[in-house]
């Protein structure tokens, strides 16, 4: 089976982890700060804060922005459920903005229309989480302008998008957002096995996330309520979590980061091959954006055949060893969110997308033979 995604681990990665295992500190040592510094350098951002998952990162982002009961967070329905669940962890309400059918990202025009309506009813969002679907940046400049007009905080869920660019800058620089979140799950662009990072240029946000990921505890003399009693002294300022990344995971991330450019180049090459080979088939292919470069975490096609359904094509491809996947089931149609009042028809573009979408295999170690097998299987399946 050719999977839709696959991590790439080499001897350098393995040795980096072994070196930490042989060291005196396997957690809270030197590797995490080094990884954070490397991410900051790559993104061109002031602060990077490493955590144990992107889900934790999204939760911390919401907490650091004081999202709480009675507040609203808006996001896209086409993402993994974590992009919405982070609001529920804080006791906040969730709503969804439909997607652009061409980019699969949150639609700025639909967002603007929904904001105008929400302003009239007094239910504007406190936070909007945009998702860079498949590694292609949202229209951040337009959405940032709306955040200033309607006074909401803006979080980029860039779980798919490390190595992507927008307007000549690397995604994660937070030029047009308050916080960016990356994921390093094994099927993502680079991996720390499990892990995530938040980036921000805001001093106060960075300071608070640093505390919240570590139980809400600090030794910062300027923040202590009482006079320090010695080097051991700390205070818990608020209720935090243990969301820290270990040095083992950070060492793997540091090693992987040295290969990021090569991974992206290979992903771009595979995407280009797919686009050329599939151009004559009854499929909607991903668009290129002149203002940005996707990291190509996923290559998503939409099945437009009048004779072959998405399900039939999915089953055919799996039967011949092509591990296509569907990203994603619209969040608002999940049973948990249906119980909150969401229903079919709330986001028609997202729902139509879901009926047609398939993610093709795409990972750096794909061979030419793998690519050819995927293309041949698609042609055969669509000819039935």
Give the SSE layout.
Layout: E1 2-3, H1 11-21, H2 31-43, E2 47-51, H3 54-64, E3 72-75, H4 82-89, E4 93-96, H5 108-121, E5 127-131, H6 140-150, E6 153-157, E7 165-166, E8 169-170, E9 179-183, E10 196-200, H7 203-212, E11 217-218, E12 235-236, H8 247-257, H9 260-278, E13 283-284, E14 292-293, E15 299-303, H10 310-319, E16 322-323, H11 335-338, H12 348-356, E17 357-360, H13 368-383
Parallel strand pairs: 1-16, 3-4, 3-5, 5-6, 6-9
Antiparallel strand pairs: 2-10, 7-8, 7-14, 9-10, 11-12, 13-15, 15-17
Helix fraction by DSSP (H/I, runs of at least 4): 25-40%
Bin the strand percentage: 15-25%
Q: Specify the oligomeric state.
A: single chain
- How are strands sequenced across the largest beta sheet? 2-10-9-6-5-3-4
Task: Give the tally of β-strands.
Answer: 17
Which consecutive residue ranges, at least 5 long each, have pLDDT under 50? none
SS element count, helices: 13
* Helix-strand pattern: EHHEHEHEHEHEEEEEHEEHHEEEHEHHEH
Radius of gyration: 22 Å
Class by helix and strand content?
A: alpha/beta
Overall, the morphology is: globular
Mean pLDDT: 97
Distance N terminus to C terminus? 21 Å
The major pleated sheet works out as: 7 strands, mixed
Structure characterization notes:
With 384 residues, this protein is of the alpha/beta class. The protein has helices spanning 11-21, 31-43, 54-64, 82-89, 108-121, 140-150, 203-212, 247-257, 260-278, 310-319, 335-338, 348-356, 368-383; strands at 2-3, 47-51, 72-75, 93-96, 127-131, 153-157, 165-166, 169-170, 179-183, 196-200, 217-218, 235-236, 283-284, 292-293, 299-303, 322-323, 357-360. The strands form 5 sheets. It has a 7-stranded mixed beta sheet with strand order 2-10-9-6-5-3-4, sandwiched between helices. Helix 6 links the parallel strand 5 and strand 6 (153-157). Helix 1 (11-21) runs antiparallel to helix 8 (247-257), helix 2 (31-43) packs parallel to helix 8 (247-257) and helix 3 (54-64) packs across helix 7 (203-212). The longest helix is centred in the last third of the chain and has 19 residues, at 260-278.
């Amino acid at each position: 089976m050719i999977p839709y995604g696959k991590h790439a681990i080499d001897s350098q990665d393995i040795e980096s982890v072994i070196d930490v295992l042989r060291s005196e500190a396997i957690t809270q040592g030197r590797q995490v700060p080094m990884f954070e510094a490397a991410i900051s350098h790559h993104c061109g951002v002031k602060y990077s804060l490493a955590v144990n998952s992107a889900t934790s990162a999204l939760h911390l982002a919401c907490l650091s922005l004081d999202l709480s009961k009675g507040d609203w967070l808006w996001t896209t329905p086409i993402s993994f459920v974590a992009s919405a669940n982070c609001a529920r962890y804080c006791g906040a309400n969730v709503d969804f903005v439909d997607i652009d059918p061409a980019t699969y990202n949150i639609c700025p025009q639909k967002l603007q229309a929904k904001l105008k309506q929400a302003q009239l009813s007094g239910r504007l969002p406190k936070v909007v989480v945009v998702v860079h679907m498949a590694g292609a940046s949202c229209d951040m400049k337009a959405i940032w302008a709306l955040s200033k007009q309607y006074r909401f905080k803006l979080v980029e869920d860039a779980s798919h998008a490390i190595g992507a660019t927008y307007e000549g800058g690397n995604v994660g620089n937070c030029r047009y957002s308050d916080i960016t979140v990356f994921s390093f799950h094994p099927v993502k662009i680079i991996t720390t096995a499990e892990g995530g990072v938040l980036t921000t240029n805001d001093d106060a946000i960075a300071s608070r996330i640093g505390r919240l990921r570590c139980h809400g505890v600090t030794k910062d003399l300027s923040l202590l309520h009482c006079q320090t009693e010695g080097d051991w002294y700390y205070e818990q300022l608020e209720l935090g979590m243990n969301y820290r990344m270990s040095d083992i995971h950070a060492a793997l991330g540091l090693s992987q980061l040295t290969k990021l450019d090569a991974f992206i180049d290979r992903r771009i090459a595979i995407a280009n091959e797919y686009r050329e080979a599939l151009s004559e088939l009854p499929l909607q292919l991903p668009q290129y954006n002149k203002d940005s470069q996707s990291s190509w975490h996923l290559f998503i096609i939409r099945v437009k055949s009048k004779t072959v359904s998405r399900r039939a094509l999915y089953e055919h491809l799996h039967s011949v060893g092509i591990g296509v996947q569907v990203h994603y089931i619209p969040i608002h149609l999940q049973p948990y969110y249906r119980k909150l009042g969401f229903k079919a028809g709330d986001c028609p573009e997202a729902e139509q997308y879901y009926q047609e979408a398939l993610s093709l295999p795409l990972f750096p170690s794909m061979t030419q033979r793998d690519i050819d097998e995927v293309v041949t299987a698609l042609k055969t399946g669509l000819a039935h």
